[in-house]
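2024-03-11 09:14:02 DEBUG pipeline.ingest accepted 1 chain
2024-03-11 09:14:02 DEBUG pipeline.ingest length=168
2024-03-11 09:14:03 DEBUG pipeline.predict start
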Amino acid sequence: MNYKKKEKKRKEDEKHREEIILSLPGFINQLLLLMDSGLILSDAFKRVALEFKRTPEKNRNYFAEKVITVYEESEKTGESVINGFYSFACREKVKELTKTANFLYENKNRGTELYKSLSELSEGLWEERKRLCMEKIRKSELKMSFPLGIMLISLIIMTAAPALMQIN
């Protein structure tokens, strides 16, 4: 029983990790677009969170829900959304998310050149997303090869059976 719970938790964590990795490049690009249009980082983050909140609940993924939660908690407590996002990234322990949160946190504290850093990070995350998608495609190809093999064998049997019957 305990093993099933652990396995279910592991699969859920892996699903959350994958959703974060797939959603993060789009999130960063939204931040970059808003910052390029003149918004400061915290306002851009709030806008993205509000946009996530406007989407129907059934269409939201884990990452969108967590961004909304970070925004709502920051509104309640008065804490910076960047600090909340950094805390969220530390809890999740996803390398890409932690790296993004570190960039945002450093910019808040030191004023590093955020736009260039985030755009480079975004490009790397898009590549990671492509790699994940290719990995999924390869897995699905493997899953489909077995049924295709069985179908091929059955077709060979169906075409060869009449010829073998005529020989006898």
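2024-03-11 09:14:41 DEBUG pipeline.report The two ends are 58 Å apart (CA to CA).
2024-03-11 09:14:41 DEBUG pipeline.predict end
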